[in-house]
Amino acid sequence: MSTLSEAQLRKIELLKLSGIQDIFKPEVQIVSKDKYLEELRTENEHCKRCKLAATRKSFVWGQGNTDARVVFIGEGPGEQEDEQGVPFVGKAGQLLTKMLEAIELSREEVYITNIVKCRPPQNRNPEEDEIQACLPFLLTQLSIIQPSIICALGKVAANVLLQNDNSLGSMRQKFYNFRDSKLMVTYHPSALLRNSQWKRPAWEDLKMLKRELQKNVR
Asked: Does residue 94 lie within any of the structural domains?
């Protein structure tokens, strides 16, 4: 089981210096990634940083391999995720599982999370204050996991991570530098359920991801 390296601990300290203090333990010790992420989840599962706390049932932290080479990031939990406290478990989650299997990956090999950890009412897009309240959680997760590739699922997640307002189509089929990872953009599985015509371009995105993984074997 992997532990946090000195470089990772330095990154976490820099995040603390950004003004976000209360999501961190007072003293960072060398612990396993699994344990550290679980402690952070437990310490923050009653978060009240934004108004989503008033309507959520679950604080949906994330799930998967803390040594993952790929992290998938959606915009926020849906109804089933809110009920179960696990990301991507509804119909969109079932499709994501099939998408992973198509490129010979399993949910156990990747890490899956969202921009915001609580469900926006009626599955609306998360609002800017909600995003900013929750973003330090995500950045901390990424600093600990240190994936080779980040895959933003959908326009909302991509716009937040890339800090732009570009269309999803214009952001696809390329890699961006994001901290120490490469970031790519594809369709959110829920969008594919609504429009089957997007499944073909989504498949092209998945093949691009697979090629990149094959080039960069750890």
From this structure: yes
